[in-house]
Structure formats: C-alpha cells, structure tokens
Amino acid sequence: MFPIGIHDIALATGHYALDLEELAERHGVDPGKYTVGLGQSTQTVPATDEDIVTMAAAAAKQIMAEHDAGDIRTVLLATETGIDQSKAAAIYVQDLLGLPSSTRAVELKQACYGGTSALHFAAGLVHRNPGHKVLVLASDIAKYDLGSAGEATQGAAAVAMLVSADPAVAVLEPVSGLYTANVQDFWRPNYRSTPMVDGKLSVSLYLEAVEQVWKDYEARGGRAIQDFAAFCYHQPFTRMAYKAHARLLEIHGIDTDNARLDADLAATTVYNRLVGNSYTASLYVGLMSLLDHAEDLSGRSVGMLSYGSGCVAEFFGLSMVPGYRRRLRTSANQSAIARREPISYERYREIREFELPEDGSSKVLAVDGAGPFRLRAVAEHSRMYEACHLIQA
Ligand code: COA
After folding, report:
1. pLDDT above 80 for 219
2. Per-domain residue ranges for the chain?
3. Quick check: 204 pLDDT over 60?
4. Does 149 sit in the ligand 1 pocket, CB within 6 Å?
5. Which residue, by CA, sits nearest to atom 15 of ligand 1?
6. What is the number of the ligand 1 atom nearest to the C-alpha of 309?
7. Digit-coded pLDDT (tens) for 292-316
8. Residue 112 is a catalytic residue
9. Ligand 1 centroid, distance to 128 Cα (angstroms)
10. Ligand 1 close to Cβ of residue 53 (< 6 A)
C-alpha cells in the first residue's frame, strides 16, 4: 500500500494578544496560576472582522500558493465554533481560495477531536483515489464565560493540512487506538455562544481517555512506547499535555518528574502557550511547534493524542518523512504569532462585547484585523467575506 499523510501544513491565528498576567490581575489571582499552573502566557483574541472562516482561509492560502488547486477534490473543515447550523464553513473557504467548483466541501464536528477525524477521513478518500488531495482545515475560537475558570485558557488558531499519497511531511501510521464515551464535560447548546463546562471533570475524563486509547492501540498491534521519538497532545492549556504524558508514562511504569516531562514536551508547547486553546487546531499547533523546535525527526515516529470532550479520543502515530524540514514554515509560523497586536484588558472587553446582528439587519464591519481575508459585512442573515490583497499576505 502507498503511504498517505500530511504533504503540507500551515498555521494562522488572530490579530490581537492578551497577556495572561493582566487577566490574572483582573481576576484577582496570582499570575503564576495561569503562567505556571495552566502553562499559558498570552491568548489570541481575534479581531471583530475575523472568524473561523478567515483564519482557516489564511492558513490554507499559504498551502495553495505552492500546490495545484486542481488536485484538490475535497475540503474538510473541522470546528466547534460553527457559524451556521446548516451550511459548511468549508464552502466559504473554498470560494475565498478560488478552488474549483468540482470540489466537495464539508464541515465536521466533535469538540476538539474534529480535526483528527478530518485527517483520518481525508486519508480514506486519498486511499480510494491516490491522485486526489484533500485540504483539511481545523479552525476554532475558544471563548468562555467572562470571569470563569476557563477564560484564562481562551485562544484562537487555524491549521491547514494538505493530505495526499506519498506525503512530503508525515505518513499516517495504520494503527489507531480509539475511545468514545457519552459524558457531559463540555458542550455548547445551540442557544449559547459559550460552552457549558465542568473543567475538573474534563481533565479527569481526558486522563481516563489516555489510558483507554493506549489500551486499544496496544491491542490492535500498535508500536511500543519506546518506539516514539516524541509525543504531541491536545493542549487546552499546555500543562494538560504534561498531565496526559505523565499518565501515559505511569501506565508503562516509567518514572515521571518535571525534567523528564519538560524534555519530552517543551518543544510541543511553545506555540500553544502563546495562542491559547484552539480546540480542533490545538493538537496540530502542538505538532507544528514540535517540528519547528525539535531536532530532525526524519524517519522517526511521533505519538499523537487527540481528545474531544463529550468525548472521543484517538492515539495514532505519524512517521516523519526524511527531508520534511525543508517543507516547514517556521519563520511564517513564528511571525504569525509574534505580529499579534498586544491589547489592554479594556480593549479585550470591547471586543467581547461586540456582536454581529442576529435579526437580519445589515452591518458593514470596519477594518480591524490585518489578515489576508476578512468578514466584510452581515446582511439578510448572511456573512460576506472579502480578500484583502493590499493588506499583509
Ligand atoms: N502558582 C503556580 N501554580 C498555581 C498557582 C500559583 N500561584 N495557583 C494555582 N496553581 C496551579 C494549581 O495547583 C493547578 O495545578 P494542578 O492542576 O497541577 O493541580 C493549576 O494551577 C490550575 O489551578 P486550579 O485551581 O485547578 O484551576 P481552576 O479550577 O480555576 O481551573 C480548569 C482549571 C482546567 C478547570 C479551567 O481552566 C477550565 O475549566 N478550563 C476549560 C476546560 C479545559 O480546558 N479542560 C481540559 C480538558 S479538555
């Protein structure tokens, strides 16, 4: 069988950054709780004219600049920040990118796990027709109630991945460990813009899922833990990766201390510590952080653990293709994060209070962000986007 996997990968995030030390001061807590206890330094706050579509299109645009649009037959967009109950956000992205109309465009949902489902479904489509490529998008804005425990873990980012046969970056290994359980740790009813969340329960269910996916992975003939050169975890906050990895090592009777965990995980947390939770994109932001900061992993395997509340989890391996480093966008990734404009708590609150009309009335949005695409207006219950050729690419 021919190898299938990630042929290209790109990142986008929102326009503003809020410092968590300032948020801690406003919440009246020791900043160490956020910077050390949760492992977060800043969080991305999207501009008022940015959403999951503009971020996904900004990530995908970098990929489309280097690949033939005609090869793409499917766009899969995973999100839990849906902008419509019916129409797929993938269609707006397909249009903004100028992809051929002979494309299928679909949206997928299962909390933070959705991006991983899209990656595996994409591999199935490529297996069916090795000449086709699939554009996988994971794009989310994590937003919690003001003053809640989750507010410090907010963030936003999008990751675009081109999935193909004979990939240049990473091959999806054939064995997966899976786990699904019907639990209420985090969910967002249709009538709410922020989730219902039992944070402590979600942490313990995530750790239970680590055990369960490994059990299934092992039973299905997966690799031994020693075969992995690195591990990436879904990172609702970066300390969660430490908790999850400690649990995986404990299952194997391997001693864990902070030095060992740091050595295994620090490279995967650099970007997530700065952008915050990006739900479906988070695991893949962690992967990009690892690839941009670790030694050459050519020919070696990276263990990937995806968790989505509700809950579904999956453990699988990625085998790094020799020479993959030539395909990385390290400086673009770093500058997407570094160029965010720092904002005061007051400005953050103004952005939180900004609302799009919900009664069908029209609103033309002032230019706020500086990405390659923006939400231009809302009218007759519809969103209208535009490309900003004169603004930064
Ligand atoms: N210096 C350093 N660390 C500190 C500290 C300080 N001054 N004050 C507290 N901490 C540590 C705590 O000991 C704790 O560490 P531990 O988890 O290793 O014990 C950590 O900071 C967080 O403190 P805690 O009191 O547990 O935070 P919280 O209950 O207010 O909120 C969550 C934590 C995860 C529940 C909350 O952020 C949340 O609901 N997040 C959204 C849901 C989520 O991300 N779920 C994850 C799984 S998907």
Report:
1. yes
2. 4-170+329-390, 172-324
3. yes
4. yes
5. 37
6. 48
7. 999 999 999 999 999 999 999 999 9
8. yes
9. 44
10. no
Q: Tell me if residue 232 is catalytic.
A: no
Strand partners, 67: none
- CATH topology assigned to domain 4-170+329-390: Peroxisomal Thiolase; Chain A, domain 1 (3.40.47)
pLDDT digits 0-9 by tens, 54-81: 999 999 999 999 999 999 999 999 999 9
Domains 4-170+329-390 and 172-324 are alike in CATH topology: yes
* Cα–Cα nearest to 238, from 260, 275, 202, 269: 269
Q: Are 133 and 63 in contact (CB under 8 A)?
A: no
Among the listed residues 15, 50, 80, 151, the single catalytic one is 80
Q: Could you tell me the distance, in angstroms and rounded to a whole number, from the CA of residue 22 to the centre of ligand 1?
A: 17
pTM for this model (two decimals): 0.98
- Per the annotation, the verdict on 25 as an active-site residue is no
| CATH superfamily ID and name for 172-324 | Thiolase/Chalcone synthase (3.40.47.10)
Q: Is the dihedral of CA 278, 281, 283, 286 positive or negative?
A: negative
Q: Which residue has the tokens 């030539």?
A: 326
- Give per-residue pLDDT as tens, 134-154: 999 999 999 999 999 999 999
Mean pLDDT over all residues of the chain? 97
